[in-house]
Structures are given as structure tokens and as C-alpha cells.
Amino acid sequence: PDMFNSVRSLMWRDVGIIRSAASLQRAADRLSEWSNYVFREQFWDDAGWELVNVLCCCQAITASALSRTERRGAHFRSEYPARDDLHWRRHTYYPPDGSADEDERSK
After folding, report:
1. Is 107 exposed, middle or buried (0-12, 13-18, 19+ CB in 10 A)?
2. Rg, the chain, Cα only
3. Among residues 28, 101, 91, which one has the least CA distance to residue 67?
4. Closest Cα partner for 79 from 92, 88, 69, 89?
5. Which of 47, 70, 97, 100 fits a 20 to 30 Å CA distance from 64?
6. Spatial CB neighbours of 74, under 8 Å, sequence gap ≥ 6
């Protein structure tokens, strides 16, 4: 439960409604540290696998938010307060290698 609370707190504080490149990078670094530890473990219960899935989802959200340099919906980057439909009206995806990028299919 402590790890879930730590992840929840990190995501709210650094990847929440108001984001910045610095807060997103800080969250990405911390999630990477935690994942490097957790992903090496073997789990025999549902809680362990749930933690793995939560960390994977949080990494995808953080990487996608870091790559998107605009405001979209309620979430926005403090250094990019306006929407940019010309460049960002498309999906982002998070491939297994962990590099978020814009979805080529929506160009």
C-alpha cells in the first residue's frame, strides 16, 4: 500500500492538472527508479502485478505528457498554456520501447 500511495502522490504532484517540463521529468526519473526495482521482482499475488501495471501506465502517461507541448483539455503545461491544434490535434502513443511520439496514423 505504501508504494501505491507514493505513486499516487507523485502523479498528482508532478503530472497532475498543472504540469511543467521539470515536474514531468522529475516524475519520469522517479518512476524509472521505482520500475527498475519493481520489475526485477517476482510476484505471487495480485497486488504485485497491479503495482507493475500501475507503474507501466504512469510511465506512459508521463512520457506522453512530456512529449506534448500544448494545453489539451483540463491538463496543461505551464510553459505552453495554449492549445495548438495545428501541431497537436492527434493521438500520442507509447510503444513498448518507452519512447512516446505522435501517432503517425493521424497525420
Report:
1. exposed
2. 15
3. 101
4. 69
5. 47
6. 17
Counting Cβ atoms within 10 Å, is residue 15 exposed (0-12), middle (13-18) or buried (19+)? Answer: buried
Summarised one tens digit per residue, pLDDT across range 52-65 is: 999 999 999 999 88
**Cell numbers 504540469: residue:** 19
CB atoms under 10 Å from CB of 24, counted, come to 21
Average pLDDT of the segment spanning 80-90? 79
49, three cell numbers: 502485478
pTM: 0.81
Q: Are 62 and 24 in contact (CB under 8 A)?
A: yes
SS3 102: strand
- Please write down the HEC assignment for all residues of 39-89: CCCCCCCHHHHHHHHHHHHHHHHHHHHHHCCCCECCEEECCECCCCHHHHC
